[in-house]
Write a structure and sequence with these properties.
Strands 1, 2, 3, 4, 5, 6, 7, 8 and 9 form a nine-stranded antiparallel β-sheet that branches. This protein has helices at residues 2-18, 22-26, and strands at residues 31-38, 46-55, 60-69, 83-94, 99-104, 108-115, 122-132, 135-150, 153-167. The radius of gyration is 16 Å and the shape is globular. It starts with a helix and ends with a strand. By secondary structure, it is mainly β. The chain has one domain: Porin (Beta Barrel).
Length: 168
């Protein structure tokens, strides 16, 4: 997985140099496609992520987020319920020089989408409003938990996240 992220980051950087756009003029694009991993096991209903991004203006960026949410036990698969995002932080640094820093507003959601049989993958939708130094923004992504059986228990051992951030 790290090889895939490294290739994506290199491609994004090459694209940003080859194709100047609004990101080159302002340091930030209006929208970013993001991809990353969960960087630690969730603690106190807080999940942390980091990864790379490509802006609509062609700029490459790095990003990180800390998402505070209800326990996922409050929105089990098949229940039709979503867990509420209650806070957290978001930061994006464009290699063109722009910075987007902000926080998740209360009221976003983590929604179970699918779960493979046994101890297979779990897929969630993540959506939340952001209050940032550049004005309002919206984060929407797909979170995938990779799970394995350890000592008879099915536990998530790795997670990926892909999606977008839109300013305005």
């Amino acid at each position: 997985m790290s090889r895939t992220l490294a290739i994506a980051a290199l491609a994004a950087a090459a694209f940003a140099v080859a194709v100047p756009g609004t990101g080159a003029a302002t340091g930030l694009s209006n929208a970013y496609t993001v991809a990353g991993i969960e960087t630690s096991f969730p603690t106190n209903n807080t999940s942390t992520f980091a990864g790379g991004a490509v802006g609509s203006g062609g700029d490459a960026a790095q990003w990180s987020a800390s998402v505070v949410h209800q326990s996922l036990s409050n929105c089990p698969f098949g229940s039709g319920k979503s867990c509420v995002i209650t806070g957290g932080t978001f930061a994006l640094s464009s290699f063109a020089g722009g910075q987007l820093v902000g926080s998740f507003l209360n009221g976003g959601s983590i929604t179970p989408i699918s779960q493979q049989a046994g101890c297979g993958k779990q897929v969630f939708g993540v959506a939340g409003a952001l209050s940032t130094n550049q004005g309002p923004a919206h984060f929407a992504a797909t979170l995938t938990h990779i799970r394995m059986v350890f000592f008879g228990l099915c536990v998530p051992v790795f997670a990926t996240i892909t999606g977008s951030v839109h300013l305005g």
